[in-house]
Inverse folding.
């Protein structure tokens, strides 16, 4: 019996429902033991993962936006800084925005030191996230492989790999022979339209279950006392002179000592309510796609270097992939057909055997494209306000680090060294963090 | 999305190249006003609603256009030549391609 329980516990650990941090004073909510206990009680005792509270008249901190970043911010405010009198207000339902609309890729294969430091910190948080949250976010370090199609692109990628190693991360250069062993479906022939000359592999990178990230952070924040208020749209800001003192919502006024905005693609709209008419941000749409389910076909994330495509296979077997943003300003969560055609043709160029696979679903999400392709996590721009935006289409991987550093910034009224470079005034001061060197053309980042 | 080019008529989005926000005004090249240059290069109004923007009919007549398009519905309410606006704002210039 003891052996049986032990193997069950190991199995539970494998699926991330282990007992969590042992130093925590209470028993973890999700564990092998709680599974057994509830099984004997007909599974009637489970509590909802988060409450549905009515808003209180005032809080220490109100976070606008119940997406991944807003929920992570609330979680780390409570956990790391002991600030639990917090509300997260969300216009729709929890996880209805980009946290549920991405291609679930987590990586830190960046070139510039500021980016490497930030995103590598995020990967480190991801590595312990299921354990930390006592919620299985299914983080799978299956690796991200960037394919290079010309000697000059290979040089560029190897340079980036060296920068990653220099920054304390991991990177590996794979030859075509090694790639053929790892991803057998690729067209590695010399006659391919874009021959593959090598690839940059980051083994610690991978994918995670996007919904579980939202739910895990929500439950973690909720159990520490944070009020998560859904269907509560912010329609204005309360002001005392310049200072922001709260929000006006569809469910009444809520006062707050500090108001934090983390609304991704809606940044322009929400900040206009606070009187900020101009920002270094444009909203664009990014489309993503899922194919019908296939048998195991590709076991890492593969990106196409001759165009822009990234693809992985979900645990259900569907190929999850996306490409470029549509390239024009929009707040609509849907795209147009030229990009669909573009993405499909790139996928078939890479994997000719996928030519007759059918598409199951596609959708769009609104991206807050910044002028240098890097985010903004800062105090301001008004007194009493904090801004987290400019994620372009790389926000998912940043969720834990974004929340962690934003919580630090809110709690201490100053940025952590990790997010200190990601200011709003860096454009005016000429200290951009432009990974691609594209300049102020958001559609090209 | 269809854009109606004043020369060519309604054509598919794939024939056009987006050229960005047309609400910005380039400061005088001799200006050293950093705030004005910063606003021109980096700041956007990014409206949720009607947006004035440049498109080029790059797969057609190659004309540069000013389009007013709703960023919530993708509905296009107005298309005109960008040149008309340039001629209106800028000093007269040599017509390129004209024979001497």
């Amino acid at each position: 019996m003891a052996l049986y329980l032990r193997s069950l516990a190991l199995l539970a650990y494998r699926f991330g429902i282990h007992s969590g941090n042992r130093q925590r004073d209470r028993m973890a909510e999700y564990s092998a033991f709680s599974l057994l206990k509830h099984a004997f009680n007909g599974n009637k005792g489970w509590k909802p993962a988060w409450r549905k509270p009515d808003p209180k008249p005032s809080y220490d901190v109100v976070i606008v936006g119940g997406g991944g970043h807003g929920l992570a911010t609330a979680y780390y405010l409570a956990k790391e800084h002991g600030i639990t009198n917090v509300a997260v207000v969300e216009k729709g339902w929890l996880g209805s925005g980009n946290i549920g609309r991405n291609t679930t890729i987590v990586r830190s294969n960046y070139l510039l030191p500021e980016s490497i430091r930030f995103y590598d910190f995020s990967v480190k948080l991801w590595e312990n996230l299921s354990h930390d949250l006592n919620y299985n976010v299914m983080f799978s370090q299956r690796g991200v492989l960037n394919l290079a199609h010309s000697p000059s692109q290979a040089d560029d990628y190897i340079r980036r790999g060296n920068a990653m190693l220099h920054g304390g991360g991991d990177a590996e250069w794979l030859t075509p022979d090694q790639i053929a062993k790892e991803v057998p479906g690729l067209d590695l022939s010399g006659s391919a339209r874009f021959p593959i000359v090598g690839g940059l592999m980051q083994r610690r990178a991978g994918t995670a279950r996007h919904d579980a990230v939202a739910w895990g952070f929500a439950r973690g924040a909720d159990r520490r006392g944070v009020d998560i208020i859904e269907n509560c749209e912010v329609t204005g800001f309360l002001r005392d002179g310049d200072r922001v003192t709260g929000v006006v919502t569809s469910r009444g006024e809520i006062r707050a000592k500090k108001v934090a905005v983390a609304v991704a693609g809606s940044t322009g709209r929400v900040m206009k309510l606070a009187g900020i008419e101009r920002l270094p941000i444009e909203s664009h749409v990014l489309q993503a796609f899922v194919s019908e389910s296939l048998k195991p076909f590709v076991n890492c994330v593969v990106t196409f270097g001759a165009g822009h495509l990234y693809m992985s296979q979900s645990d259900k077997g569907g190929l999850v992939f996306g490409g470029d943003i549509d390239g024009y300003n929009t707040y609509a969560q849907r795209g147009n057909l030229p990009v669909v055609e573009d993405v499909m043709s790139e996928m078939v160029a890479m994997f000719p055997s996928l030519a007759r696979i059918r598409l199951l679903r596609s959708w769009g999400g609104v991206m807050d494209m910044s002028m240098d392709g890097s985010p903004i996590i800062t105090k301001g721009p008004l007194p009493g306000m904090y801004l987290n935006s400019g994620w372009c289409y790389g926000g998912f991987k940043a969720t834990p680090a974004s929340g962690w550093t934003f919580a630090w910034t809110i709690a201490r009224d100053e940025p952590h060294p990790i997010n200190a470079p990601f200011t709003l005034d860096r454009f005016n001061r000429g200290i951009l963090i432009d990974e691609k060197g594209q300049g102020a053309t958001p559609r090209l980042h | 999305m269809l854009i109606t080019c004043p020369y060519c008529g309604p054509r598919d989005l794939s024939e056009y190249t987006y050229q960005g926000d047309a609400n910005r005004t380039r400061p005088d090249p001799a200006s050293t006003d950093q705030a004005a240059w910063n606003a021109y290069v980096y700041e956007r109004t990014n409206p949720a609603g009607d947006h004035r923007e440049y498109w080029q009919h790059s797969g057609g007549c190659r004309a540069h256009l000013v389009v007013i398009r709703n960023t919530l519905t993708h509905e296009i309410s107005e298309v005109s030549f960008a040149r008309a606006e340039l001629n209106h704002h800028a000093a007269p210039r040599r017509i390129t391609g004209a024979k001497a």
